[in-house]
Design goal:
The structure holds 3 protein chains of 3 kinds.
Chain A (H helix, E strand, L loop, with lengths): L1 E11 L5 H14 L4 H22 L2 E10 L2 E10 L7 H4 L13 H8 L2 E7 L3 E9 L3
Antiparallel strand pairs in A: 1-2, 2-3, 3-5, 4-5
Chain B lengths: L5 E4 L2 E5 L6 H18 L3 E5 L8 H16 L3 E5 L3 H10 L7 E3 L2 H17 L2 H15 L2
Parallel strand pairs in B: 2-3, 3-4, 4-5
Antiparallel strand pairs in B: 1-2
Chain C lengths: L2 H9 L1 H14 L10 H18 L14 H17 L3 H22 L4 H44 L4 E4 L2 E7 L4 H18 L3 E8 L5 H17 L2 E5 L3 H9 L9 E2 L2 H11 L12
Parallel strand pairs in C: 2-3, 3-4, 4-5
Antiparallel strand pairs in C: 1-2
Helix pairs in contact in C: 2-3, 2-5, 3-4, 4-6, 5-6, 7-8
The chains are: A alpha+beta, B alpha/beta, C alpha/beta.
The complex binds adenosine-5'-triphosphate (ATP) and magnesium ion.
């Protein structure tokens, strides 16, 4: 069973919010004793997703949770925006696909960096991405 | 702080990134460095990122851009001091730092730059190196 | 009526302890090599003390009772330490079950005149001691699991030694299968070592890796890429003919990586990169 131990949220409206958000995520990761490598992977994935939110949806809200399941604990992050949404999710998840003349590594890369990755989006309504990084994993 | 100081050392420029950069700061750094390369006719740029705890695709692109821009202006760029966790993460993210060289620390970065610049001047880096090794081997007989 | 059991047992404590110890000493599985008889007596007395102090007659049937928690603690301590010392489950079980025999013997003698009380007492004591037995096994297994976990850690450490073969050159012979968890450990310790020693060249020797499939190759390629990002070079050595064959048959592209057949040739290459020269000293004339 999955239990939420701590819940926190942060609004992302401008580029200056990215670093404070990353620092907040790091605090929680440190709190549960996540290794430096796993911390770095989690924060990098979070950074990619928060940037997408800013770039394609003009901002959104993030939710941070410290969760535990059995002996394992982890961090769950949710990124929710009311932007244009993604028409073809499979395409957006492909390596190198970008509508922003960029590298297109953000989404597929973030998925590789975490343990669980879920994306939901419908055109005109917005996008929700949630990720989990376990302390041991 | 909204600008990162750029130090000049002979014909090299040295930038030490001490905090996780806000995007604007990173973009400013790109512009400032390119201007400085032009103004000082520097032959090499050293960027010390040992204090950076993460490099995401945005920061990676800025570093790559600096390398590409400097190269067109005839300068080589070396990124030094990447943390092990950052390197592991970048590989998993799928980002290669094209356009820049890498070195373990500032001293090794300088050595590398000197070597690159010398090689570029003589115009035949590989050949020269191999010749040296060959002569060494000859002398063992 | 129930109260009588705990009082009765307390009164007969000496007898029970003596019976218990002689039962243990009589067991064929006694491990005098692992534990002296004095130690055994001490452990037994400690547990019996806690037990007789803890039971009130009412709490015998209640396994979560406050009063009994010291009993479970002592028992847990004993079975964990026995697990670590290498006792078998049977040898550990005899410890608790012979106590049951000792107590039952006392009860049968003492309550011989009251069949009903004896029957009640037997059921209760049986249940209680069975539960102690279960607790013993639970903690015993936990103790063994800890031993296994520690050994797993040790094995993964032992199997990825990082050797400083020369100033600026590290060698890492990999022995055994390279899965993603192992790659993670190897990468982390390798990169940290590179930083700590300032080594610019690393030789990853895979002659001890049984098979190289595309997954293993992927792990190797990642390790090389991370090393390069740090500003160091990574050479792969120990490519056996079978490995070369599978790599090519699987269409794995290693062309961006420097590969050498043996550690010796990788070392020679590393010397050349560092512009070092190893010479035989000329004989004196
Ligand atoms: N929150 C979002 N809202 C709308 N579209 C999005 C969102 N996130 C991603 N996308 C779409 O998915 C595409 C792929 O995203 P991804 O992060 O993988 O690459 P990128 O942002 O274009 O480039 P990079 O992240 O490498 O700079 C984007 O180009 C964009 O079209
Ligand atoms: Mg992106």
């Amino acid at each position: 069973m999955r239990i939420v131990l701590i819940e926190d949220a942060m609004l992302i409206e401008k580029e200056q919010d990215v670093v404070p958000f990353r620092n907040r995520v790091k605090e929680y990761a440190v709190k549960i004793g996540m290794s430096v490598v796993n911390q770095t992977k989690l924060i990098t994935a979070a950074s990619e997703l928060v940037r997408n939110m800013l770039k394609y949806a003009g901002g959104g809200k993030t939710k941070m949770e410290v969760i535990s399941e059995g002996r394992n604990s982890g961090i769950r992050l949710v990124f929710e925006d009311n932007g244009p949404g993604i028409k073809d999710i499979a395409q957006a998840m492909k390596e190198g696909f970008s509508t922003g003349q960029s590298l297109g590594v953000g989404l597929p890369g973030a998925k590789r960096l975490v343990n669980e990755f879920e994306i939901k989006s419908s055109p005109g309504e917005g996008t929700v991405v949630s990720i989990i990084k376990w302390k041991n994993g | 702080m909204d600008r990162i100081p750029i130090l000049r050392m002979g014909n090299f420029l040295l930038v030490t990134i001490q905090i996780d950069l806000y995007d604007r700061l990173a973009i400013n750094l790109e512009t400032d460095l390119v201007n400085m390369v032009n103004k000082t006719q520097a032959k090499g740029v050293l960027i010390d990122i040992s204090a950076l705890s993460i490099v995401d695709s945005f920061m990676g692109r800025i570093l790559g851009n600096i390398g590409d821009m400097a190269r067109i202006m005839d300068a080589e760029t070396v990124v030094v001091g990447m943390q092990p966790a950052v390197a592991i993460t970048l590989v998993e993210l799928g980002l290669e730092l094209k356009g820049v060289h890498t070195a373990l620390n500032v001293v090794k970065g300088m050595e590398l730059l000197r070597l690159k610049i010398k090689d570029l001047d003589t115009g035949e880096e590989e050949d020269e190196e191999e010749e040296e090794i060959a002569t060494n081997e000859d002398s063992t007989d | 009526m129930k109260q009588d059991i705990s009082k009765l047992l307390q009164k007969k404590k000496k007898n029970i302890l003596e019976d218990w110890i002689s039962l243990q000493l009589a067991d064929a599985g006694l491990r005098e090599d692992l534990m002296s008889n004095d130690e055994l007596r001490e452990q037994s007395a400690e547990l019996l003390d806690a037990l007789l102090q803890g039971i009130t007659g009412d709490n015998l049937a209640d396994f979560n009772s406050e009063g009994l928690s010291p009993v479970y603690e002592i028992l847990a301590g004993i079975s964990i330490s026995r697990a670590r010392q290498g006792f078998s489950p049977r040898e550990t079980g005899v410890f608790v079950f012979s106590l049951k025999d000792a107590i039952l013997k006392t009860l049968i003698i003492e309550l011989a005149n009251d069949q009903q009380a004896l029957a009640d007492a037997l059921i209760l004591i049986n249940k209680f001691l069975d539960n102690l037995g279960i607790a013993t096994f639970e903690t015993f297994i936990k103790g063994r699991e800890e031993v296994i976990l520690r050994q797993t850690d040790e094995i993964s450490e032992i199997s990825t030694p990082i050797i400083r073969v020369w100033d600026g050159i590290l060698a890492l012979p990999i022995i055994g299968t390279l899965d993603s968890a192992r790659t993670q450990v190897v990468m982390e310790s390798l990169l940290q070592n590179i930083v700590d020693t300032g080594s610019t060249i690393t030789i990853l020797d895979i002659s001890g890796v049984p098979t190289v499939d595309s997954l293993v190759a992927q792990h190797i390629i990642k390790t090389v890429a991370a090393t390069r990002l740090m500003g160091a070079e990574c050479i792969i050595s120990g490519i056996r003919p079978e490995i070369a064959q599978t790599v090519v048959h699987l269409g794995i592209d290693l062309s961006n990586i420097v590969t050498k057949a043996t550690l010796a040739s990788a070392l020679k290459y590393a010397f050349a990169v560092l512009r070092l020269d190893v010479k035989r000293i000329q004989k004196e004339k």
